[in-house]
Amino acid sequence: MKAVALTRYLPIDDPESLVDVELEKPEPRGRDLLVAVKAIAVNPVDTKVRAPKDQVEPEPKVLGWDAAGIVESVGADVELFQPGDEVFYAGDITRPGCNSEFQLIDERIVSSKPKSLDFTKAAAFPLTSITAYEAFFDRLELDVKGANAGETLLIVGGAGGVGSIGIQLAKLTGLTVIATASRPESTTWVKDLGADHVINHYEPLRPQIEALGLEYVDSIALFNNTDQHWESAVDLIRPQGKIVSIVENVKPLSQSMMKTKSATFVWEFMFTRSMFETPDMIEQHRLLNRVSKWIDAGQLRSTANEVLSPINAANLRAVHQKLETGRSIGKIVIEGWD
């Protein structure tokens, strides 16, 4: 089968950083589905895993954690799907990714593809939807049915992939969304997605929040540069409020004011459930099913903002390079094979 892989971790402008390869088609066992991949999306996690380092893989390593496709065959213990089903999913970072014609994936982290979307638009949803959903409803413990309606949520990094779906999920539950964006095109993007207010994360945040008539915000989601925005987040979170981050820190994160405020800080990493095969691993299947229903009901729109074809090393290198600039808006999808 065709695939795009790496054996060395090189700068993205090196043509050997991602290469076209031929691999053996795998066979599903246990609860695995074998999915014929039709479209993929690329995320910052892909660039982080591929980032240059002194390491060589003995076998080609396939990246990619956003896909839509058709179930080709199933393992003996599969209960939720059958061959021919159209699915979408993000995957498991400990296993080969979706940048291949066929991929093995545990059914407990897979959902039926939204009927109203083609494979290309569907591929933009899984990783960011899972991340934003878990960040808001599992980590911040906001109520998915709307019990927190009217509360304020500050999303730092509103125009990125997670921010783009996060704004929509937050508005579905009645939250007042303050999103950050720094350019005219990203400001327009987050407003179109439903953000109630837009502020600039390259300018001091407190004066901008106070200009909205607020002293504090109820919840904060750091979807961009935790180190850069930590002090502002701690300053702006209300006493007994909660902050969630999806971006690893480099510097120590001071907790003194968090203690004074009895505030909570929690991490979100969407691969935790699959990586550790937690007892609630199937919750990702369930939450993606909810997302799929919201999409088909017209309550969520695709965040795919650019589409390339076909799926090959050249196009994947181009997308990685664009993501590494930190200036992409929404999601970038690659569809089809040569």
How would you explain this protein's 3D organization?
The protein has 338 residues and is an alpha/beta fold. The protein has two domains: 2-125 and 280-335, Alpha-Beta Complex (Quinone Oxidoreductase, Chain A, domain 1), CATH 3.90.180.10; 129-267, NAD(P)-binding Rossmann-like Domain (Rossmann fold), CATH 3.40.50. Helix content is 29%, strand content 28%. It contains eleven helices and 16 strands. The protein has helices at residues 44-50, 119-122, 126-139, 161-172, 184-193, 205-210, 226-236, 256-260, 272-276, 283-296, 313-323, and strands at 2-9, 19-22, 32-42, 53-62, 67-74, 86-89, 102-106, 110-112, 152-156, 176-180, 197-199, 217-222, 237-245, 264-267, 304-308, 331-335. The strands form three sheets. Strands 3, 5, 6, 7, 8, 15 and 16 form a seven-stranded mixed sheet that branches. Helix 4 links the parallel strand 9 and strand 10 (176-180). Helix 3 (126-139) packs across helix 4 and helix 3 (126-139) packs across helix 10. The mean pLDDT is 97.
